[in-house]
Amino acid sequence: MRPNSLHAADLAHMVHQQTDLGAHAADGAVLIARGEGVHVWDTEGKEYIEAMAGLWCASLGFSEKRLAEAAYRQLLTLPYYHTFFQKGHEPSVRLAEKLTAIAPPGLNHAMFQCGGSEANDAAIKLAWYYHNVTGRPQKKKIIGRIRGYHGNTVATASLSGQPHMQADFDLPLGDRFLHISNPNYYRAGLPGETEEQFSERMAAELQALIDREGADTIAAFFAEPVQGGGGAITPPRGYFEAIVPILKQAGILFVADEVICGFGRTGHYWGCETYGIQPDMLSCAKQLTAAYQPLSALLISDAIHAALLEGSKRNGSFGHGYTYGGHPVACAVALETLAIYEERDMVGHVQAVSPAFLDGLGALRDHPLVGDVRGVGLIAGVELMADKAKKEPFPAGAKVGLLVQEKCHAAGLIVRAIGDRIAFTPPLIITAAQIGEMCRRFRAGLDAAW
Ligand code: PLP
């Protein structure tokens, strides 16, 4: 490595996030220099298909000029203003109006933050606030799912079911965060158990937890409609149908974490729409701005909003907010993003190319490493297995997922290994021809790893 090179500076000074820092110290990082459409190029000039849209977010690819122009126009008009102390600005108001118009029914109010973690952190706070103000102050516990991912603040990392994001960070904090099983039917379904029976078993586990803890102690349940960071895990048939009534019966708020699923990823505008969920709160981020600006929104029901008004009266103010929550440049970019989604019928496009995506990846079931392929819309997970006939996983520590990821990189394909699961969430603009090329490169990566 050349002294004073970008890679040398990276190794010397840059702390990479969510990274095996030992591997980084040994091998360095792939530094991405530019992008166009669904492709990116690294600093060595190597081209990749970005089959993760960055971090499940660059829905319009890496060269959408309209978003750059929207940001520039807003920077020239009003580069910053806040929404504190009865002040505000047009882009955030217009975005709140737009988002609540397209949201699942009943979510008529929007609160803005900078990222998905902050939106979910706010949802946890609002769940407590709501129950306190409405006279149920003992409702404190929050239920998440093993392998669920809701962010990296103290509270959201506690709620997430990802042990490596808690170990040595002194998390989870306190005893307010409970977890139920991961609904990965392929891995956890019992021999002979149908998907529907598996869902019923998951629901029975939730009911038993509520009975054990007491419904009057539980504030909210968080779920991603399709689990992303857990391994791109689609819910088994009948899953949400079985658990939603249990939550309703127990007076537990349902928070839909649509940070990945929102804005067409699952083939409908919202994952909630795909799975027939009516949430009390919905968090979204990432594809909200096609990732061109950091922004998230928490959409809340009238009942929760009424509690904010009540609490504000009681405490003199609604005491929550961030300097950059609802930043005007980010909101302007979000409005332009949503306009593009509508003009180009992005949901229709996802529905049109989804069969090529799911069938193309599904064809890789013939590969000796591939145990299962599942997905919906333009999100998919591939399960790698040591012996797929016997459904035998690789031993812990075998790091086969990372090997496949590395070989895919060599073949010009950026995918994400989550243990022995390979996740795919390409930009929503991907074409059927590019999907074909993505699958060819994936097969080349699998062959090289085999
Ligand atoms: N929720 C889900 C479902 C996510 O996938 C993520 C990030 O990947 C987050 C929350 C956290 O979002 P952020 O990294 O923007 O804070």
Keyphrases for this structure?
Aspartate Aminotransferase, domain 1; 15 strands; 2 domains; binds pyridoxal-5'-phosphate; PyrdxlP-dep_Trfase; transferase; Aspartate Aminotransferase, domain 2; four-stranded mixed beta sheet; transaminase activity; alpha/beta; 16 helices; 450 residues; seven-stranded mixed beta sheet; Aminotransferase class III-fold pyridoxal phosphate-dependent enzyme
Estimate nothing, just give the exact number of structural domains: 2
Q: How far is the N terminus from the C terminus? A: 30 Å
Low-confidence stretches: none
Number of H- or I-type helical stretches? 16
* DSSP strand tally: 15
Q: Largest sheet at a glance?
A: 7 strands, mixed
Major sheet: arrangement of strands: 4-10-9-8-7-5-6
What does this structure look like?
By secondary structure, the protein is α/β, with parallel strands linked by helices. The chain folds into two domains: 31-63 and 345-449, Aspartate Aminotransferase, domain 1; 68-343, Aspartate Aminotransferase, domain 2 (3-Layer(aba) Sandwich). It is built from 16 helices and 15 strands. It has helices at residues 6-13, 21-27, 53-56, 65-77, 90-102, 116-133, 154-159, 185-188, 195-213, 239-249, 271-275, 302-315, 328-343, 346-362, 400-410, 432-449, and strands at residues 32-36, 39-42, 47-50, 107-113, 141-145, 177-180, 218-223, 253-257, 281-284, 296-301, 370-376, 379-384, 413-414, 416-418, 421-424. The strands form three sheets. It has a seven-stranded mixed beta sheet with strand order 4-10-9-8-7-5-6, sandwiched between helices. Strands 1-2-3-13 form a four-stranded mixed beta sheet. The protein has a four-stranded antiparallel beta sheet with strand order 11-12-15-14, covered by helices on one side. Strand 1 and strand 2 form a beta hairpin. Helix 6 (116-133) crosses helix 12 (302-315) and helix 14 packs parallel to helix 16. 49% of the residues are buried.
